[in-house]
Amino acid sequence: MSARLSGLTIGALTLDPTFDGDVTEYAATTTNATNTITATAEDDDAEITILNGETPVTNGSAATWAEGANTVKVTVTNGAAQEVYTVTVTKNSA
User: Under 8 Å CB-to-CB from 10, ≥6 apart: which residues?
Assistant: First the structure.
């Protein structure tokens, strides 16, 4: 039973480091007000929960960014297995 992601995208933003299912901490920078977050689990049975701070985000939907650092937590749960991926998205003024 895998609780890993096989893919994670936030709009057209570049994740640093480049996405790897074994890495759980990322950073990205944007000037956009929103970006779509899409997370793909390795196992089709896994459940994915996305939070932008305290705000739930539906997988495949847009998150709205506040000025400065925004913490996105993507939790993958599959039975008793769980993995949390964290992306710090920093919104700069346009």
Answer: 28, 35, 36, 37, 38, 63, 72, 87, 89
Which value, to the nearest 10 degrees, does the dihedral of the CA atoms of residues 47, 52, 54, 58 take? -40
pLDDT digits (tens, 9 = 90+) for 12-22: 999 999 999 99
CA 42/CA 40 separation, integer angstroms: 7
Distance (Å, whole) CA 33 – CA 78 = 32
Tens of pLDDT, residue by residue over 36-70, are 999 999 999 999 999 999 999 999 999 999 999 99
Neighbours of 56 (CB within 10 A): 10
Look-up of token digits 């949390």:
84
The reported pTM is: 0.96
CB 26 within 8 A of CB 54: no
Instruction: For residues 2 and 75, give the distance between their C-alpha atoms in angstroms, rounded to a whole number.
Output: 12
